[in-house]
Specification:
Layout lengths: L1 E4 L3 E4 L17 E4 L2 E7 L3 E6 L5 E3 L8 E5 L12 E2 L4 E7 L8 E8 L3 E5 L6 E6 L2 E10 L3 E3 L5 E6 L7 E5 L9 E2 L1 E2 L3 E8 L2 E9 L2 E3 L7 E3 L5 E16 L7 E5 L12 E2 L3 E9 L1 E9 L2 E3 L7 E3 L5 E7 L1
Antiparallel strand pairs: 1-2, 3-4, 4-9, 5-6, 5-11, 7-10, 8-9, 10-11, 10-13, 12-13, 14-19, 15-19, 16-17, 16-20, 18-19, 20-21, 20-23, 22-23, 23-26, 24-27, 25-26, 27-28, 27-30, 29-30
Amino acid sequence: MKHLISHTIYLLFIFIGFYSFAQKDGFKGYKIENDTVVFTFNAKDYSKFTREYTGQSLDFNDFDIENVAVSGDFNLWSRDNWKMKQIDEYIYELRKSISDFTDEFSWEFKFVINNSFWAEPSKNIPNITKAIKNGRKIRGIYNLKMYTAYPDKNGNASFKLKGFKDAKKVILAGSFNKWDEHLFEMNKTDNGWELTLQMKPDIYQYRFIVDGHWMEDPDNNNKTKNEFNEFNSVINIKEYTTFKLRGYTNAKKVVLAGSFNNWNETDFVMRKMDYGWKYVVPLSGGKHHYKFIVDGEWITDPNNTVKEHDGNGHVNSVCMVK
């Protein structure tokens, strides 16, 4: 998606993709579609409903459902704020934008019936656990996990492991999925194993798990030592960021200088456009300071109100890549 800062700098952000395995391995309760978390309650999956404070239980056949709500960490366990919409006789649904969630990696939640009863799953569901809320033990807690990387054949990061053709399973684990040992299963190819992910700009560490054996990427020389005195491979995902300086059309030369190029005064010569000047550069995720050099004169971005002192007496414009 595109983010405009003060009508001048267009930061091309990779959308923070969230991939859900709600449909996989019997997961229930939610799925994630692009930028939307879809909570789904199917009454057929529940045999009992337990009153939150008294512990009274009612069988499904003796219970009339008037409303269903999603209650969890993300809404302070509210029993009525996130009401669901009835889709058919048994199924209720609630769709929430990812903007309704913070940057936390995972949450716990349950379904609340008629504002006071917890829904108790009747089947053994992998993403169900027990938890204690307000001093009370609550069974049937769903675990909602969201990842800042997800498999996409058209993604921006391809991981390849050559050879190991006799391996039964190869998993990609890294800081982008909390080192999950099962989540990102790689695909077997003629040359080995491969998986392409869509990832937000950042620096990540990763390893391959070949039939249970952890190993670094043998074809990636960028690595760092881990706590087991072994090495994690490192990948730096960058996103093309477009800087624009409107006006100054009479200038002979405009250069972009910033923390991302050690404030080099000659390398990033901007291209003259009808509206002014433009330069595109791949940047890592995070904060970057920059200035324009117009015919030898250093200026901050006149159309970007976000500025910071650098500690050396200078004021620089700021862009954030997320």
